[in-house]
Amino acid sequence: MASSVSGIYTSSPSLKRFPNQTPPLTQPLRKDHVSFHARRADRSLSLARPRAVAREVSDGAAAAAAAAAKGLEKDPRALWRRYVDWLYQHKELGLYLDVSRVGFTDEFVREMEPHFGKAFEAMEELEKGAIANPDEGRMVGHYWLRDPKRAPNSFLKTQIENTLDAVSKFANDVVSGKIKPPSSPEGRFTQILSVGIGGSALGPQFVAEALAPDNPPLKIRFVDNTDPAGIDHQIAQLGPELASTLVIVISKSGGTPETRNGLLEVQKAFREAGLNFPKQGVAITQENSLLDNTARIEGWLARFPMFDWVGGRTSEMSAVGLLPAALQGIDIREMLAGASLMDEANRSTVLRNNPAALLALCWYWATDGVGSKDMVILPYKDSLLLFSRYLQQLVMESLGKEFDLDGNRVNQGISVYGNKGSTDQHAYIQQLREGVHNFFVTFIEVLRDRPPGHDWELEPGVTCGDYLFGMLQGTRSALYANDRESITVSVQEVTPRTVGALIALYERAVGIYASLININAYHQPGVEAGKKAAGEVLALQKRVLAVLNEASCKDPIEPLTLEEVADRCHAPEDIEMIYKIIAHMAANDRALIAEGSCGSPRSIKVFLGECNIGESYA
Ligand SMILES: O=P(O)(O)OC[C@H]1O[C@](O)(CO)[C@@H](O)[C@@H]1O
Prior knowledge:
The protein has 618 residues and is of the alpha/beta class. Helices cover 43% and strands 11% of the residues.
């Protein structure tokens, strides 16, 4: 039963460390230089900053260089030439990348080229199966998912192909009604409830928003948090359709607390509705994980593998992304084809012909290779709304690292945020245009406004889509006029193929950029600290409960002060956390505040109200 998934646990398997086993993918890019941004003066001087070098000291005239750094090319003819010279086009994908509004110089490109050479070699090694995630001793194989013949051995190739076939077959059988829910009046599954977090949610959410048809065969909802009210809301929205809901629980590790909690909450809802959860449950997880074992023992409807060598944030083309997409009627083979075509382009060792490398070049230039500017993602298309949220994890969890591959403290990363245009025009574009200059923009342009045959002119010669186009172009120009740099990625339409390509483009850009700055893009050690601390808070809460229970059993109406609780917990140094725990429990009717109020913590006296004899809070 579900109760077998119990206890608080952290998700990551213990990390093997091989500090000296794999040489760094690139030589660190070291130059002595004058600090470029005063506010970053505390950064280690060992950081990689060829741009700063190019801008500041190449001709020995710091003032001239500083002026040049501000003065982006403004002559329209020269800009047009730059646009044409640098425009990247992928004909088959109908995708363009315009980097002309990023001000990198020829000198900077020349200087960076050898570093790109090393990054390309590193990517090649990675695709051949190198241990590209040295801390965890893992291969990094998301590129094989869309081109299984590139997998380093036939076992992995077959695993990928078999999983894809199994996903397609299962999705077809569900959509066609061959696989049915046991007790639904509909006689077929109508809804998906996807339970997962981080990389086990963001890709499926982005793709659903981008590509699900207006009337998908199964509609999708997400539980991606341990917020009880949020979960209740999703379950309430399903209402009687819970009986025809396919619950897909996604967790690579199979032990992420939020996902476990989501599962337990959903299982409770099933029990209360008199439904048989296992007949409607699907697990996507690593073989033999806690989730996998639970699903196997309980006899869930299906289980699909998540591979050790695919990271959560690059898992959209694994069963994690493909199963929910296929169930919504999205052509997953087209998504894979788009990604594969993009990967092929990104294998070019000629910088100009490699769109991911061009992106990485722009990121390096714009952020000085140290994340000094934020990446604002502005898709001018409602269906791409979640792209920035998806990229936030892909970029920030990959690049946001304290140490480089040589163990130097570098505190790297690039912050990502965004929403959509032209909506943002009426929100934060004001600051982008005129306020603090701490960002560069990436516009995502979709050339086709709506399907053929539906357009009309809402004023002579002008459609609704023309306005959207005008807003994008206008914002791009207005920002540039004020020295705000931007990249523009254009696609013909939002299709499974272009979405697959966009994902692949950014996955590779992150990989290349990580090589340039010499960090491991494929681990996330920082996340563990928060998970561990959360576990400690919950352990402390159990001690508090035990202390209050013991006190209530001795004298049900004699409340304890916070100090007394902390002393009896043998944790006087944790008094602030104990106060917060009590305030939270009191707000949820699980402890009673006898005296005082939460606004004046010293005044609080607390008790449990009832003695739970024999209750173990351990
Ligand atoms: O798929 P899992 O193992 O549940 O992990 C979910 C997410 O948690 C993280 O490990 C940390 O946030 C992400 O990298 C991952 O995508």
